[in-house]
Amino acid sequence: MLIKNIVLAALVITATGCANNNTLDASLTSLNQKVDTLTDKVNALTDEVATMKAQQKTNSDSIERMGSTVDNANKRMDNIAASYTK
User: Fold this and answer.
1) What does the alpha-carbon distance between residue 25 and residue 42 come to, in Å, rounded to a whole number?
2) Calpha distance 63→37 (Å, rounded)
3) Per-residue CA distances from 24 to 11, 17, 43 (Å)
4) For the chain, percent helix, then strand, then coil, each to nearest 5?
5) Residue 20 falls in which region: left (phi positive, over 0), alpha (psi -120 to 50) or beta
6) pLDDT tens figures, 41-85
7) How far is it, in rounded angstroms, from Cα 85 to Cα 80?
8) Pairwise CA distance, residues 49 & 52, whole Å
């Protein structure tokens, strides 16, 4: 009787262990898929940030050029105004 109980307990433990491995494998596969999805999203966001940085640099350069153009125009207008007051 004791041997039957030991064998039965061993079978239950073995079956439980196998079931846990299958669940663990499924969980691991699911986690790997989620990590891959997140990695893809991070890569997409990284590309988007790089694009936005390039656009921002272009915009900053344009604003700087416009500022110097405005300064030149103001100097010309000041020169014209100064010639009328003389």
Assistant:
1) 25
2) 39
3) 20, 10, 28
4) 100, 0, 0
5) alpha
6) 999 999 999 999 999 999 999 999 999 999 899 988 888 888 876
7) 9
8) 5
Report the half-sphere exposure of 15 (CA within 13 A, side-chain side).
6
SS3 24: helix
- pTM, full prediction: 0.54
Judge whether residue 34 has pLDDT over 60.
yes
pLDDT at 32: 92
Cα(12)–Cα(69) distance, rounded to whole angstroms?
A: 85
Mean pLDDT in residue range 28-35: 92
**What's the residue count for the chain?**
86
